[in-house]
Design brief:
18% of the residues are buried. 41% of the residues lie in helices and 18% in strands. The termini are far apart. It is an alpha+beta fold.
Length: 203
Amino acid sequence: MALERETVELLVQAVKICHFGNDRLGLHNREWMVLRFLSRANRFSRTPSAVAALTGTTRATASQIVKILEAKSYLARRPSKRDGRSTTLVVTSQGEKLLALHDPLNGLLDAITSLIPEECLRLRDSLGKILNRIDTADRQPAVGACRDCMFLAETGIKRPSHGRARTNMELRCRLHRALIPAGEVDLLCTTFVRATATGREPA
C-alpha cells in the first residue's frame, strides 16, 4: 500500500496548490471554479442551475456567485436561444483575460503541459478511472466532456447525392435531444454520465 498511499499524498498536494485561504484578485475558490467552468461549458450548462449543480449549492447561493462575477464584468447574461424565458451565462473578454493571466490553476496547467502527450493522456485516463471508482454518494454531480458521455450517440442521416442516397453521420445528445456539432464535443456539461467500457447505447 506504500505506493498507493504515496500517490494519494501527491494528489492531495496538487489539490492544495489549486485552493487557497484568502481571495485572489477579489475572487474566492468557488468564483474561480465557476468562471473556469463557464469558459468551457456547452450550451446546456451555461445556466444558473448548472452553476448550482457544479458547486453543490442552492440556486440562491449560485445566483450570488454569478452576481459577484457580473459585478466585476467577468460574466454577462444573454437571452437563451433555446428558451426565451431563461438566460445564458457568458464569460466576457475581460473574464477570459483574467483566466489566461491569473487563474490559480495556471501553474499546475503549465506543469502538466510540460509532460509528453503520452504521459498527459495516461494521467488524464487514470484520474478519470479513479473518479469513477470513488463512491458517488457524497460527491457533487459529475462534470465531463460530451465525447466521453453515454448520452452522445452517432445518428445516420440519409441525404440524396447525385441521384443516390448517402448516409452522413451526425452526433446527437440523447438526453437533451439536440445535435452536437463536432466542435462542441470537448466542451463541459453538468448532465455528464461517463460512457461504459462496452460503449454507448444506440440512438
